[in-house]
Amino acid sequence: MIDYDIVVVGGGPAGLAAAIEAKKNGIDNILVIERDRELGGILQQCIHNGFGLHIFKEELTGPEYAERFINQLCELGIDYKLDTMVLDITEDKIVTAINTVDGLINIQAKAIILAMGCRERTRGALNIAGSRPVGVYNAGMAQRLINMEGYTVGKKAIILGSGDIGLIMARRLVLEGSEVIGVLARGGYAAGLGRNVVQCLEDYDIPLMLRHTIVKINGKDRVESVVVVETDENKRPIPGTEKEYECDTVLLSVGLIPENELSNNLGISLDRGTRGPIVNESMETEMEGIFACGNVLHVHDVVDYVTQESRRAGESAAKYIKNQLNSSGRCIQTKAGEGIGYIVPQKVRIDNLEGPIEFFMRVRDKYQESKLVIKLDGITIREVKKKYLIPSEMERLIINPKLLKENQGSILTVDVVSKEA
Amino acid sequence: MYDVTIIGAGIVGTFIARELSKYQLNILLLDKENDVANGTTKANSAICHAGYDAEPNTLKARFNVEGNKMMEDICRELDVPFKRIGSLVVAFSQEEMVTIEELYQRGIANNVPNLKILNKKELVEKEPNISPNAVGALYAPTAGIMGPFELAFALAENAVDNGVELLLNNEVKKIDKLEEGYRIYTNNKEIDTKYVVNCAGVYADEIHNMVAEPQFKIVPRRGQYFLLDRIAGSTVNSVIFQCPVKNSKGVVVLPTVHGNLLVGPDAQDLDDKEDRDTTDDRLEYVRKSAYKTSEKIPFNTVITSFAGLRASPDTKDFIIGEIKGTKGFIDVAGIESPGLSASPAIGKYVAQLLKNIDGSFKENPEFKSTRKRAIHFMELSNEEKNEIIKKDPRYGRIICRCENITEGEIVDAIHRNVGGTTVDGIKRRVRPGMGRCQGGFCQPRVIEILARELGKDFTEIPKDGLNSNIAIRETK
User: How many CA atoms lie within 13 A of A221 on its CB side?
Assistant: First the structure.
């Protein structure tokens, strides 16, 4: 058995930031376990720029953003293992991992930070009808093939789903000499960030086909065509609107799913809205001493916020080890109200609040000229005006702890109030 | 000249090849695809039926019951998964209980052992998630679940170990009768052979018609399925059929040997023998129909859907035997359900048939009946795991994180005597990409390993068929 104070599962942006912050908060004995061949996670395949605007006030590429944290991790002398897969975590905080050098190892941790990231929803989960030819890829996998392995996948592509990876890959394929028929969104708006719609589609004359989806994929060995239909307000196909497009590649960017298999086996409760663990103000799951941050907790759209959230997890894990987290006292539960999909964290233990607390949430629909109304046990404690709310952009709400301390109540809700939906 | 050429390397062809390898013969196992088990064998219900379904005194009934008895031992010899979990045919009304009684009687007539009719209480005890509308069931403890393509790979490996030659990528175009034997023309070769066994699945009628007058027609009958995540695997404990009703056979709900849940199939006769498309309307039918069995099937955990083609004969029964007036040419056609369950018995029967026709088969004294599968790394104890990693560190590298498949297992699957050469071939042998991410993370790594081990370029590695290379060229 090997002993560590903190084991961080995952060496992507979340794991790196959490480990660094824990070290800065006085914990020396930290191990980061990464399953890939290098640190940095998915950032390493995101060779486009736009990372770091909030944290570094500059536009970095994914690998550059990762490099800053990797360098810091190395400067701080934090241990890490690459090409190492965590197979199991027990309630007693024993982490079982495997690699080619150490074999199967058990590590006893005092605290664990879950930072496993997420995976892409697949064609199988969507059940798109038709044949099973080559040429249908998740956008992230195509990104890896092109940007890391150095191979391109097709000459003429159509992209289903307007998530950020889909938008970025549309541009990437064009730069690689492929033709992109369009990016299809089932609903009336793109699922990715507005800036990506402009920079990846509009700047390259790639059509964004709102209210469209693919209902069938044709082709024996390789994709030969797809059948596209228009969708109604409920995102359902409208019969009679079928149109066939010839292409050899279909990319899917239809959602990301937090990778919580380890958390599930461990018996950690998950939130149905986020599909990630339920956490408190310290990013601690319902299992004491086990923390979670980044895309394993809820899917983010900007890495800078992953970093901020993960720093909180790292700092809290350090406090936990130093016995500075207060598990008693008043606890407020958060609840997604009208128009809100989820809120993270789900619990706030008032005594642990030192500075302002940040809530992350996503709205369910598109709203204009609206406001977010924050209530404690039904009584409004604050309102924040919002010009524009859209599910694709995560909302951050920063609340002064005084507001929570001075007002009674145990349930905090956030509602969207708007004139027009 | 070969003694025997077997056309079709599906479950039937591989069983026959292995059975014939018990004799001192030159045997060729031929397939048009680039891998073994790439037709009906790769997409079916993976059930070893008990044998109460088929009408008494049919080949289906005979070989099903016989095959069921042989299957467990063969799977053990060849080190492939088999679990005798039993099957239930569930009735949803007293009227349907009459059919259940009929099935019971038919099972008795077919010599199916240990059949039992369960009342509602007994049924619910066995299957707590069964629909509250169920009233009773026929229980057949001898039914089992298995891995059809794992078995076909193992049979092919064992056959090759025992001297059978395997030739892939050769589609039969024409067959001429010689003075003695036959000349088979494929897209690549001419093959002379004394005897021919036609087990070409949905194409068996076309192969038959190359040497004789048409006597039967094979209709590709498509069936569609859902495969659900392992977290759904324990929804049911046995293979659950619905009581057959007019116009509908209903669908089957069963756990797989790998712990997933399988739901399907429907049945639809087609013209196109390559049409394995899934369709929205049929899958919706499968979903709705399955809810009749259990409302607790978590369809939100579907990881994929697929379709397979049954080789359905217009004669209704299996067609097995020497074509009249065409000496030494054996049809093994129309092997639809319960074909998988019957396949061991069919293999044995066909070998005997040829032995009788020839009269001079000599036993192969070096025949080896066992075959060891690759190491299933995750099934080992911690000590064993560490020992193996010390010997071969590649077993310490997990490539498929959903199914926890190591690089060592993938490399082994490539270098076996019937090794995988495609991404899907590796997936069917050792399962990387079978899990919930469907290869999203591991596929580039599997291509890389295949390219390295086969000495090929990354761009030459196909997903499945010959023209399905994944990477088309290096980036600019």
Answer: 12
Q: What is the rounded distance in angstroms from the CA atom of residue B273 to the CA atom of residue A352?
A: 67
**For position A420, what pLDDT does the model report?**
55
> Across the interface, do A124 and B276 touch by the CB < 8 Å criterion?
no
Q: How far is A33 from chain B (nearest CA, A)?
A: 13
Per-residue confidence (pLDDT) for residue B247, from 0 to 100: 62
Q: Which residues on adjacent β-strands are paired with residue A384?
A: A372
| Amino acid A65: pLDDT | 98
Beta-sheet strand order (sheet of A136-138): A136-138, A249-252, A156-160, A179-185, A208-210
Domains of chain A: 1-119+257-325 (3.50.50.60), 122-254 (3.50.50.60), 326-421 (2.60.40)
What is the mean predicted confidence (pLDDT) over A38-64?
Answer: 96
Burial group, residue A220, by CB count within 10 angstroms (0-12, 13-18, 19+) = middle
Percentage of chain B modeled with pLDDT above 70: 99
Which of B393, B415, B419, B407 has its CA nearest to residue B448?
B407
Query: Where are the strands (E) in A27-139, listed by range?
Result: 30-33, 49-51, 60-61, 79-81, 85-89, 94-99, 103-114, 118-120, 129-130, 136-138
Question: Cα separation of B153 and A194, whole Å?
Answer: 51
Q: Write out the E strands in A131-258.
A: 136-138, 151-152, 156-160, 179-185, 208-210, 212-218, 225-230, 243-246, 249-252, 256-258
Residue window 159-198, chain A: list those with CB within 8 Å of chain B: 176-177
Beta bridge partners of B363: B23
Residues A179, A192 contacting (CB under 8 angstroms): no
Which 3 state secondary structure label does DSSP give B298?
Answer: coil
Q: Name the nearest CA neighbour of B305 among A139, A228, A219, A123.
A: A123
From chain B residues 449-468, the ones with a CB under 8 A of any chain A CB are 458-459, 462-468
pLDDT digits (tens, 9 = 90+) for A314-361: 999 999 999 999 888 899 999 999 999 999 999 999 999 989 999 999
A238, A278, A318, A305: which is closest to A14 by C-alpha? A305
User: pLDDT (tens digit, 9 = 90+) per residue, A374-415?
Assistant: 999 999 999 999 999 999 899 999 999 999 999 989 999 999
pTM (2 d.p.): 0.94
Could you give all domains of chain B from N- to C-terminal order, each with its CATH number? 2-41+148-217+315-358 (3.50.50.60), 87-141+221-310 (3.30.9.10), 377-460 (1.10.10.1100)
